[in-house]
Amino acid sequence: DKGNHRHFMEKEIYEQPEVISHALSRYMDFASNTISDNINAIDFKATSSLAISACGTAYLAGLVGKYWFERYARLPVEIDVASEFRYREMPLSPSQAALFISQSGETADTLASLRYCKDKGLKIGAVVNVRESTIARESDAIFPIMAGPEIGVASTKAFTCQLAVLAALALGAGKARGTISAEQERELVRHLAEMPRIMSRVLNLIQPQMESLSRELSKCRDVLYLGRGTSFPLAMEGALKLKEISYIHAEGYAAGELKHGPIALIDENMPVIVIAPFDRFFDKTVSNMQEVAARGGRIIFITDEAGAAASKLPTMATIVLPDVNEIIAPMIFSLPIQLLAYHTAVFMGTDVDQPRNLAKSVTVE
Ligand code: M6R
């Protein structure tokens, strides 16, 4: 049932504040602002490193997770798309743990990677939406993302719920490994607790602007997304979302890679979507944006209030989100990305929930 939404994708985008609060409350205790003990189903303290494997959007969530595990838990992460991971013949040892991320829990390559790791004696954790799935069944520890059924082929609420669970796991791992203090833990959990409310506010705030910008995007043949740090996987997620439902060619790049190739594509016909919260990477990303502006590129700047105040570069549009803590920025910045893709596809009249050639769950290699 789509309720009063035109598509499941739209409904699922607007469900995010609610489902994310379910995901958070499963792994956090908001009375004490601490991470719950259920994340200890994986013994992160005894783990030498973490191998993450997944496909598509789930892989991009894992890539954000990598930044968090390394930063907050000082836990080295090896991550790859499952179709490569399973054949890489990576040296693995039982001192490592492996994490598989999958909405459906049935993705063939992800399952094959899981079996490969299991065979090598690694402890297996699964971040899944469907708890009765094969991936869930074959894992030692299940971390449900609590998103509820996701019908739209383009993953939206599963992505942000995967991020919420990965944030909890990374902070829990940091706590177990003694790399974050009790005070930091309380502070970060407090920020995460505010996320559902901020998400609702942002969805309402940006909707009209996303709709009018999408009219412009729908005229383009190519779109480039740029970001640094955790905004780099978001750039790739933005490009994936746009291409899969609007069929516009889009690419996501690490902002610093711009001058190593993609800058050759910049002209007034290709919009560049720059994802840049006012974090420690901001100035670097703005200098890349400057390179785009200098070549006549049209910029759609997705930033926050502090970022908008700090950059004076001319843009085609600036989307101003509220200033939020770094730990929740990837989830909040997912919202304009999802809405831009959604409205662009609606303008173009594509089959938003069932894009051509795609299946919700890829159970063959
Ligand atoms: O069910 P899974 O999370 O394992 O699926 C992985 C990908 O097939 C999936 O995320 C795909 O990339 C989506 N269509 C992206 O929106």
Task: Provide the descriptors you would attach to this structure in a database record.
five-stranded parallel beta sheet, 12 strands, aminotransferase, repeat, binds 5-amino-5-deoxy-1-O-phosphono-D-mannitol, alpha/beta, transferase, 365 residues, glutamine-fructose-6-phosphate transaminase (isomerizing) activity, 13 helices
Account of the 3D structure:
The protein is α/β, with parallel strands linked by helices and 365 residues long. It is built from 13 helices and 12 strands. It has helices spanning 8-14, 16-27, 56-72, 82-85, 108-119, 134-137, 157-177, 182-193, 195-217, 231-246, 282-294, 305-310, 329-348; strands at 28-29, 34-35, 50-54, 77-81, 97-102, 123-128, 141-144, 222-227, 249-254, 271-275, 298-304, 317-321. A 5-stranded parallel β-sheet has the order 4-3-5-6-7, sandwiched between helices. A 5-stranded parallel β-sheet has the order 9-8-10-11-12, with helices on both faces. A two-stranded antiparallel sheet has the order 1-2. Strand 5 (97-102), helix 5 (108-119) and strand 6 (123-128) form a beta-alpha-beta unit. Helix 2 runs parallel beside helix 7, helix 3 (56-72) packs antiparallel against helix 10 (231-246) and helix 10 (231-246) runs parallel beside helix 13. Bound molecules: 5-amino-5-deoxy-1-O-phosphono-D-mannitol. 5-amino-5-deoxy-1-O-phosphono-D-mannitol (M6R) is lined by residues 55-58, 102-104, 107, 110, 153-155, 240, 244, 361-362. One of its GO terms (biological process) is UDP-N-acetylglucosamine metabolic process. The active site is at residue 360. Its main location: cytoplasm.
